[in-house]
Amino acid sequence: MSEKLYALLLRLYPSHFREEYGREALQLFHDRARDERGFFPRVRLWLDLLFDLTISLPREYLHIPSPSVAASAPQRLNGLPAFYFLQNESPRPSALLLGGIFSLVALTTCWVSLNQVHSAANSGASQFAAARNERESGRTESAQTTPRAAASSAAPALTQAGAMDPAERKHILAGTIANLKEHYIDRGAAQRMADALAMHEKHGDYNAVTDRAAFAALLTQQMREINPDRHLTLDYFQDPLPWHPVAQTPEVVTQYREAMKRQNCAFEKIELLPRNIGYLKLNSFPDPEVCRVAAMAAMTYVNHADAIIFDLRDNGGGNPEMVQFIGAYLFDHPEYWYNPRENTTEQSWTRSPVPGNNLADKPVFVLTSARTFSGAEQFCYDLKMLKRATIVGETTGGAAHSGVWHRIDAHFGMGIPEAKAINPYSSTDWAEIGVEPDVKVEAANALDLALKLARTKPKEK
Amino acid sequence: MPKRKLDPLPSSAFQILLALVGEDLHGYGIMRQVAEQTDGRMRLGPGTLYSSIRVLLEEGFIEELDSREDDRLGDERRRYYRLASAGRKLACSEAERLADLLRVARAKKILRGRYV
């Protein structure tokens, strides 16, 4: 047995040593094992061998067998590079097999870890993309509420190590209660909601819940039973949430600028259609710091149109300041511009009239789809409430994103409203219900219908 | 010009040269002889022993003899080694170097008690 073990250890030596002295080394071990019997001599033998191994192994690997060097040395010519062979023989099949297996393991490990990094970067990037979109001089709606929240919370929990256990439920519940108490705008309501959640836990209402998305939905529902606030949510995300909001490094800003330049600041089309109808297909409301000039140029291009169509069917939202900036062209006096994320300030009024603008009294049509989200819905909602536009298309997505985002752990987070914006039009905004169009039609047919309406509609105001 | 492998002479190589003075030995014989001449302080393991033997062979300080059996250790054939004349000279000069060191040590009176 011990001889076999030593034979295995001998395989650690380079092949040139094994070939030359492997048999002798094994013989020496055999001789010593035969002569040194008993517990202590045997322990001493193994200590000797291990010590010998640590001393002689590095030396053997550093040793270049002289015949090979001698054989390759004559190949050296004046001024020409020469190659020395450290090992002449080809590797054994077992060594090749072992090497192959190790390489596979190493490659798989690399691949898996790269994927991890990639997915982390992606979740960061997607959050950034939306956050950057909707970023607003330090106040962003989507840095506060991540855009995937609604979708993910409805999606089944597929991953994350099986079902939810009691410890995880307790942890998420404690995080939810702590965040409520600390951040919710109405302290009394926060306390009542926290008490209700604690009571549900006491009654064992969560014991059967093992699905994370269902748990998030249940807690959200229970909070709203006490305090009907549709901006208050607990969301579950399959992809791990980043620790911090994506930093606005100069590189990130530069990338955003370049991306916006390539996409013409999300103005996919700026056209004057027959009968002098201005058509703007805007797929985002980009940061005015980057796109103000582009937006002004677009509005100037359609400045003399008799009617104007904003196509927001593919608009996922963006920067509230840009929403308001474009909205300003549609009024000849400052209008209160409702933003569910802001307290009432002077920022809440459009900067109308815009010098040189002719659009303040022209009919406006806004095309919507179920993919019209967030900032784009704000544009629709405010224009609809101000009775300044005809909304044509489908009911919008219903993402108001007015809560500030709080991370509970890698997969759970809460949107908590921290400011109370005054909604002059009704007690609700478009959160979760979307903006109802004035003229309901499939998104694909919205443009045709809006064009018909624009051609028949008399000039407004 | 690469440095000579046995400069300075490692003590294991010196002990092997000394072990081979007077008789031809196989690996295990050398190991036992070295243990004996060092009062058991140096027990050469197979790795150290054979890597030293190989270097001594390459440098021509010892030579390998035809394999033969050792009557006391059974019927396995073993490789025997013999001290070459260059090896003897090397062992001599190393012994003199050590003797010089010993003289210095004596002169410095750092040796206590009996010494040879």
Structural write-up:
Chain A is of the alpha/beta class and about 450 residues long. Among the domains of chain A are: about 1-65; about 255-400 and about 435-455, 2-enoyl-CoA Hydratase, Chain A, domain 1 (Alpha-Beta Complex), CATH 3.90.226.10. Chain A is about 45% helix and about 10% strand. Chain A has helices at about 1-10, 15-35, 40-60, 65-70, 95-135, 150-155, 165-185, 185-200, 210-225, 250-260, 290-300, 320-325, 375-385, 445-455; strands spanning about 235, 265-275, 275-280, 305-310, 365-370, 390-395, 405, 410-415, 440. In chain A, helix 1 (about 1-10) packs antiparallel against helix 2 and helix 8 packs across helix 9. The N and C termini of chain A lie far apart (about 100 Å). Chain B has a single domain (about 10-105), classed as Winged helix-like DNA-binding domain superfamily/Winged helix DNA-binding domain (Arc Repressor Mutant, subunit A, Orthogonal Bundle), CATH 1.10.10.10. Chain B is built from 4 helices and 5 strands; from the N terminus they run H-E-H-H-E-E-E-E-H. Chain B has helices spanning about 10-20, 25-35, 45-60, 85-105, and strands spanning about 25, 60-65, 70, 75-80, 80-85. In chain B, strands 1-5-2 form a 3-stranded antiparallel beta sheet. A two-stranded antiparallel sheet of chain B has the order 3-4. The radius of gyration of chain B is 16 Å and the shape is globular. The interface of A and B includes residues 24, 26 and 31 of A.
Distance between the termini of chain B: 40 Å
CATH architecture designation of one domain in chain A: Alpha-Beta Complex
Which architecture name of chain B does CATH use? Orthogonal Bundle
Which protein chains are joined by the largest interface, and how many residues does each one contribute? A-B, 25 and 19 residues
Q: How would you sum up the global shape of chain A? A: elongated
CATH superfamily of one domain in chain A: 2-enoyl-CoA Hydratase, Chain A, domain 1
Helix/strand order of chain B, N-terminal first: HEHHEEEEH
CATH topology of one domain in chain A, which one?
Answer: 2-enoyl-CoA Hydratase, Chain A, domain 1
Question: Which fold name is given in CATH as the topology of chain B?
Answer: Arc Repressor Mutant, subunit A
The CATH superfamily label of chain B reads Winged helix-like DNA-binding domain superfamily/Winged helix DNA-binding domain
Sheet having the most strands of chain B = 3 strands, antiparallel
Beta-strand fraction estimate of chain A: 5-15%
**Beta-strand content bin of chain B:** 5-15%
